[in-house]
């Protein structure tokens, strides 16, 4: 269970507030206009963006001051952050040990993660030898391997075409179902949220609103979402 308690991030006169709880195992879309603070929200939860006020709690424990590595969080960004000089297996292995000194069990876990995202046999390829969809799968395998209970996706599949994106979202859906992880997913495509998310956090006008059931939100969209959806 993720709780944002009187959460505040501020730059000059720009601010983002949040005050809500996300139930365990929820699959939550994060929607809102460009510049509203969706990436900032995820970066703060992951520990890359300090808060100006408030607290972040995981299952009741205060994680506000923990460094990113000590948080129960795996985050996947749009550009996937693969290292071009490392193989697919090494890029995945970084999720376990930054120095890549993996023991036998850890190497087996890397193989298993690659297999789980459908990349068996691609372990020795470097990112330049992978398609966009395959590279996204490598990044997903790395996030998966960390076995964190909270998975944050900041538009990691935005650069992919609609068919590949749908395939990746289906894979994410399967993976979070298997692991019981809580998912927060930023998307510029409301259809993606409708496909995967059972609830939606709307970020607009300085506030990340508490999650509401996806069907309710789209049946009766608030003005900020109507603007965002283009009327
Ligand atoms: N390090 C920073 N310092 C100052 N302002 C920042 C910083 N990072 C982001 N901002 C500003 O904070 C606001 C929110 O940015 P953020 O990237 O979170 O929005 P977003 O909703 O994810 O946008 P988009 O949909 O375009 O990706 C923007 O006005 C942005 O310019």
UniProtKB/TrEMBL annotation:
InterPro entries: AAA+_ATPase, ABC_SmlMolc_Importer, ABC_transporter-like_ATP-bd, ABC_transporter-like_CS, P-loop_NTPase. Keywords: ATP-binding, Cell inner membrane, Cell membrane, Membrane, Nucleotide-binding, Translocase, Transport. GO terms for molecular function: ATP binding. The keyword Cell wall biogenesis/degradation does not apply. Pfam families: ABC_tran (PF00005). Residues 2-230 form the ABC transporter domain. PANTHER family: SPERMIDINE/PUTRESCINE IMPORT ATP-BINDING PROTEIN POTA (PTHR42781), THIAMINE IMPORT ATP-BINDING PROTEIN THIQ (PTHR42781:SF1). This is Thiamine import ATP-binding protein ThiQ. The gene is thiQ.
């Amino acid at each position: 269970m993720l709780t944002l308690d009187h959460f505040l991030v501020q730059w000059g006169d720009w601010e983002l507030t949040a005050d809500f709880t996300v139930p365990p195992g929820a699959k939550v879309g994060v929607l809102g206009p460009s510049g509203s603070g969706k990436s900032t929200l995820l970066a703060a939860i992951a520990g890359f963006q300090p808060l100006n006020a408030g607290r972040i709690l995981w299952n009741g424990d205060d994680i506000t001051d923990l460094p990113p590595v000590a948080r129960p969080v795996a985050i996947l960004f749009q550009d996937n952050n693969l290292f071009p000089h490392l193989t697919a297996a090494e890029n995945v292995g970084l999720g376990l040990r930054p120095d890549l000194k993996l023991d036998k069990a850890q190497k087996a876990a890397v193989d298993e993660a690659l297999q789980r995202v459908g990349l068996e046999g691609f372990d020795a390829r470097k990112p330049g030898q992978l398609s966009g969809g395959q590279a996204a799968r490598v990044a997903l395998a790395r996030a998966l391997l960390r076995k964190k209970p909270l998975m944050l996706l900041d538009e990691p599949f935005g650069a992919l075409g609609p068919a590949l994106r749908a395939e990746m979202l289906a894979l994410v859906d399967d993976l979070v179902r298997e692991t019981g992880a809580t998912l927060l997913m930023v998307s510029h495509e409301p259809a993606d949220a409708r496909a995967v998310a059972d609830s939606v956090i709307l970020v607009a006008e300085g506030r990340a609103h508490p999650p509401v059931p996806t069907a309710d939100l789209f049946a009766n969209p608030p003005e900020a979402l109507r603007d965002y959806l283009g009327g």
